[in-house]
Amino acid sequence: MRVLKSLRLAEYIELVALFFIQGAALGMWLVPLSNVLAAHGLNAIRPYAFATSAIAAFISPLIFGAMADRHASPVIVLRGLALATALTMAIATTAIKLQFNPWLVLALIQLQALCSAPMWSISSSIVFARLADAGKEFGPIRAMATLGWMAGCWAISLLNADASAMAGFSAAIMWLVVFGFTFFLPQMETPKVIAKLTWSQRFGLDALSLLKMRDHRVVFITTVLFCIPLTAFYPYAPPHLRELGLQHTASWMSLGQVTEIIAMFALGALLVKWRLKWIFACGLGFGVARFAFSALNTKGWLLAGVTLHGVSFALVLITAQIYLDQRVDPSWRTRAQALLSLVNSGIGNLAGYLSTGWWFNHCSRPIGTNWPLFWGGLSVTVAGVLIYFLIAYRGLAARAEKRI
Question: Same CATH fold, 204-404 and 1-190?
Fold first, then answer.
């Protein structure tokens, strides 16, 4: 029994380390990217550079998810993608440093995004496959990715690379660490496919059949609608903080990450006591409150809204990942997580950046932004999502449905 517990602890540490170093790699690249582009005279492509992740989410997660489900071990797929991400990130960073043609730089950033986009869903499927009780164990492990993200940001600041190409090279090195770490992960078997695969199956489009089941469809629609107002957090909360006299906005924004970690650790206990439906509902309710507090337009209430952001994020989006692991057949696990990544990071984020940008412009006046109207409108939007979810989701009745 003692040997079994030791093996289990070692396995748990492996999964924690996988998420931590992957979160650090993402934070090292994405957080300083805006400053790095500006420092190298590439302001013109800055919005498009961030849109590359949304575009990539439409293309590569399902393709590589289908590969990991049918053709190769997810660990091998993750290994290849980590190496490709490291190389393309180093090339893109070199192009930024040498101030290549802006559109060539953008193309290289898009190539890097195509390599990195599937990795989160594949890593999640690897973790889910090795957990004895995903409901209890996934939240704390997922919290390590957030800690890794924060550690990666702190490392870049310690290196004084917040606006330097060194940030990109550091992130590339971290992806090489992910690549090397995969050699310590045990291989996972993939189902043997005897029948000839259609092109739809090869590209993972058969994952769309998950949407035929009512509760699956409701969860996907709920998360994508939730992601649309959620995209306003990072672009617009910092300038609002500055307007209210709160400097060091990155530090204040980290309040959301702190509560996100707390919520992830609490998820295991919540899943034992509560139905998934009420965890989703609480997350959406916190989302309503998060924007409503911000709409009150004072320092204290805005910080309260920032703090609730992490709780809302975790209770909706992390619970959605756990839902899929529990309700979808293991042979579909990677494709299901990839489809969730596609609808949230692709459809949700792209629609969110466009619509919240339009809404912000609508709420802006020469004398300043009408913050109560801006955040209040987003609060009403999340309230609509909550009402839809409560009406459409059946939960317990879905247990009688055949798993796909």
Answer: yes
Residue by residue, DSSP assigns 329-349 as -GGGHHHHHHHHHIIIIIIIH
The answer to whether residues 59 and 53 touch, using CB atoms and an 8 Å cutoff, is no
In this structure, what token pair is assigned to residue 222?
A: 């709920």
The pTM assigned to this predicted structure is: 0.73
What is the C-alpha separation between 31 and 151, in angstroms, rounded?
Answer: 12
**In the CATH hierarchy, which fold is given to the domain comprising 1-190?**
Growth Hormone; Chain: A; (1.20.1250)
CA distance 226 to 210: 20
How confident is the model over 210-220, as a mean pLDDT? Answer: 82
CATH fold of 204-404 reads Growth Hormone; Chain: A; (1.20.1250)
Structure tokens at 391: 């009406």
Instruction: Work out the angle between the directed axes of helices 74-97 and 102-116 (0-180°, nearest 10).
Output: 160
Question: What tokens were used for 293?
Answer: 């507090």
pLDDT in tens, 281-323: 999 999 999 999 999 999 999 999 989 998 999 899 888 888 8
- Helices within 71-211 (DSSP H only): 74-97, 102-116, 119-129, 134-158, 166-181, 199-202
3-state helix, strand, coil in the chain (%, to 5): 85, 0, 15
Q: What are the sequence ranges of the domains in the chain?
A: 1-190, 204-404
